[in-house]
Amino acid sequence: MKLSGCNFHGVIVIVFVMLSISSTSAMTNFNVLNFGANPIGRTDSTDSFLKAWNAACSTADSTFIYVPKGRYLVGSLAFKGQCKSPQIIIRIDGTIVAPSDYGVLRKWENWVSFERVSGVSIIGQGAFDAKGPSLWACKASSSNSCPLGTTTLRFTNSNNITINGLTSLNSQMFHIAVNGCQNVQIQGVKIIAAGDSPNTDGIHVQLSTNVEIFNSSIKTGDDCISIGPGTKNLWIEQVTCGPGHGISIGSLAKDLEEEGVQNVTVKKTIFSGTQNGLRIKSWARPSSGFVQGVRFIDSVMRNVQNPIVIDQNYCPHSENCPGQVSGIKIKDIRYENIRGTSSTPIAIKFDCSPKNPCTEISLRNVNLTYLDKDAQSFCCNVVGKVFDLVRPNSCL
Ligand SMILES: *[C@@H]1O[C@H](CO)[C@@H](O)[C@H](O)[C@H]1NC(C)=O
Ligand SMILES: *[C@@H]1O[C@H](CO)[C@@H](O)[C@H](O)[C@H]1NC(C)=O
Ligand SMILES: *[C@@H]1O[C@H](CO)[C@@H](O)[C@H](O)[C@H]1NC(C)=O
Ligand SMILES: *[C@@H]1O[C@H](CO)[C@@H](O)[C@H](O)[C@H]1NC(C)=O
């Protein structure tokens, strides 16, 4: 039985390789093994990956970089453009593993990063294992002497990017960050880290336009998806979140001069045991920023602490903001078909800025309960409307 199982596996691998070669026959192929990558993680493969990238990047054709099954130990990898190749597909079937000593990456902000690239797709069933737990433990015991940690996968100033499949495991900081990009599609990814791991946001988007995040599962210690200033035309659909802090626009108003967030759709999401569901959050500080045109549609909450929340009075430890109010203007935010359970009595909380009240807030078909009873809602400095059934009774 065992032997035939092994043979069967071999056949699949051969067919699979043939398929991927034939489907990419118009492309120039590069396999990291041909650049000396070590698939059993015995030696460091950083240079081999960079050489494969440089070879693909400097080819005028469409190119294909293959990372076969195996475990590849790599340090900080910065893949830089601009490339001659108009399209680079990187297929990862193996696991890319960070050094087990987090000190090795101490001086880097990112573990794997792409800068000024266009037309790059990263696909496959492989994984990035950032070995975060020892850094999390350091932060839990003595936060001052630990490094900040790296973001597992970051795209900067890039466009036409696809990430499909792939797992990000145990990031040190953010799992995936998209910064200064256009036309990014993230689909079918799995993000996994402990519920108490610090700063391990699942996907962070900022200063980016036309980003889509579909069909993904995000279990982590911080925000499931965090949305920063300058985000425009963001579409999130069929994402499951939890554990973690939920989907959050903000924290905004970190800076005095900040770009706004506009046209964000969050649809068909499921939140399980998260700290927040759908949140908009800003520091109680002056800022030029704004949030407008947000649609939160068809969400299920399972035991979520703050299912619907706008918090414009964020000022932890009353530092750097006492006596100040948020300059962020929030308007045209719709909540539609949101149902499920809150794990605290207040299921809807709109705590807006006394200087810039939230306007055009609307709730339609919302049914949130607390311990099978009616929950409560809280409103401060907010103007809006209610349509159809809304439970708890809205204070709008
Ligand atoms: C992005 O892709 C679109 C459609 O494939 C193409 O028209 C456009 O030129 C690409 N942009 C860049 C900067 O590569
Ligand atoms: C959703 O993603 C999973 C992998 O996480 C994949 O197996 C499945 O086919 C995807 N479904 C759709 C509809 O894309
Ligand atoms: C809002 O963003 C979506 C994509 O997320 C796009 O299809 C739509 O055209 C945008 N709407 C406006 C008014 O820009
Ligand atoms: C609201 O949700 C509760 C608990 O899930 C359910 O019992 C109730 O029937 C729902 N109400 C409506 C009007 O859908």
UniProtKB/TrEMBL annotation:
This entry's Gene Ontology molecular function terms read: polygalacturonase activity
| Catalytic activity line of the entry | (1,4-alpha-D-galacturonosyl)n+m + H2O = (1,4-alpha-D-galacturonosyl)n + (1,4-alpha-D-galacturonosyl)m
SMART domains membership: PbH1
- Intracellular or extracellular location(s): Secreted, Cell wall
Alphabetized Pfam families for the sequence: Glyco_hydro_28
User: Which residues constitute the signal peptide according to the record?
Assistant: 1-26
Main localisation, per the record?
secreted
| Taxonomic superkingdom | Eukaryota
| GO annotation, biological process | carbohydrate metabolic process; cell wall organization
Keywords, comma-separated and alphabetical: Cell wall, Cell wall biogenesis/degradation, Glycosidase, Hydrolase, Secreted, Signal
InterPro entries xrefs: Glyco_hydro_28, PbH1, Pectin_lyas_fold, Pectin_lyase_fold/virulence
Record EC number: 3.2.1.15
Q: Which family does it belong to?
A: Belongs to the glycosyl hydrolase 28 family.
Q: What does this protein do?
A: May function in the depolymerization of the pectin in its walls during pollen tube elongation, or in that of the pistil during pollination.
Q: What is this protein called?
A: Polygalacturonase
Q: Which organism is it from?
A: Gossypium hirsutum
